[in-house]
Amino acid sequence: MAVDEPEGTTRRRAPRVDALRNREAIIEAASAALAAQGTAVDVREIAGRSGVGMGTLYRHFPKKEDLVQTVLRRDFSRWADSARRAAVDARDPWAALTDFYQQALTGYARHCAIMENFALTWSVPDLEGIQQLRLVIEELRARAADVLRPGVTTDDLLLLLVSLGHAVRVTDECRPHLWNRLLHISLAGLRADHGEPLPDEAAPALRLP
Fold first, then answer.
1. What is the domain count for the chain?
2. What residue numbers bound the domain in which 40 lies?
3. CB within 8 A of 70, min separation 6: which ones?
4. Which pLDDT tens digit goes with each residue over 91-110?
C-alpha cells in the first residue's frame, strides 16, 4: 500500500529557486574568471563576481576543484559545439576543415582554462568534450577524403589541434594572431596534392648512426 508523503516533502527535496539562481550565477562568474585568468583564479574573486557570499559558494561547491570541473565540462562542450557549427556552415569540405580549426582556435585563445587543460585531456576518451571533438573531426576527415592526402587519420587531425593550441598559448601575448598563419601552413601540408607520402607512425623521426 502506498504511503502518502507528508505535505511539503516534495518542496523540501526540490532546490529552491534562489538556490538555483545562485548556483547559475556562480557558474557564470566562474566561467568568466577562468576564461580570463585560468584555473589559478581565487575563489573569492568568483564569489565577488557572482554576487554571493563565500558560504553560499561553498554550499554549492565544497571544493574549488568541483567548481572548476563543472565549469570546464560545460565550457569545453560549448567550445567543441561552436567549432562543429562553424564547419557545418562551410561551403565545401576544405573550407569546413579550415573553418573548424579557425573557430576552435579562436575560442581556445579566449579561454585560459581550456588552454591549460586541453593538452592534458585530449587523449581521455570518456571526456564528453573530447568525444564531441573526435566525432566532429572524424566527420570532417570523411567529408574531405578527396582533398586530404592519403593516410591522414582522425588522431592526426586532433593532434594538430593540440599542437596549434600550444602555439596559441605560447604566442598569445606577444603575437596573438600568429597561430592563424601556422594553421594555414599546417593545412597546406594535409592537401592531397602534396606529393611526399606520410611516414609510418612507428617510423623513427631521426636515424642515429
1. 2
2. 16-62
3. 27, 30, 61
4. 899 999 999 999 999 998 89
